[in-house]
Amino acid sequence: MNAVCPGPVETPVLGDFEESMGKENLDALAAFLGRHADPADIAGPVLFLAGPESAWINGHALVADGGINGAVLTGMIPPPEI
């Protein structure tokens, strides 16, 4: 089993994330990255993990967040306050 862990994506559920994470936090992430992801940005990683190219990848959580996780881990941006 594999998983894709996206960052904020421009879908109807984004409003729920704004409520739980804070609109200010999500706006700051969009400003840092230039935008939120769109569904096509996440479709590629999903298709990869569902396809034959990933046949030997198992038990992996693929982060597809435009670099948010890396920026937080390296201290480039502070972690969002939830």
Characterization of this structure:
This protein has 82 residues and is mainly α. 45% of the residues lie in helices and 10% in strands. It has helices at residues 14-21, 23-33, 39-50, 68-73, and strands at residues 3-6, 61-64. The chain has a two-stranded parallel sheet. The radius of gyration is 14 Å and the shape is globular. The mean pLDDT is 93.
Termini separation: 29 Å
- Order of strands, main sheet, comes to 1-2
Whole-number mean pLDDT: 93
> For the CA atoms, what is the radius of gyration?
14 Å
Number of helices: 4
Dominant shape? globular
Number of domains: 1
Helix/strand-derived category reads mainly alpha
What would a concise description of this structure say?
It contains 4 helices and 2 strands.
Observed structural traits:
mainly alpha; single chain; 82 residues; 4 helices; 2 strands; two-stranded parallel sheet; 45% helix
Layout of SSEs?
Blueprint: E1 3-6, H1 14-21, H2 23-33, H3 39-50, E2 61-64, H4 68-73
Parallel strand pairs: 1-2
Helix pairs in contact: 1-2
Keywords: Oxidoreductase
Family: Belongs to the short-chain dehydrogenases/reductases (SDR) family.
GO molecular function, one term: oxidoreductase activity
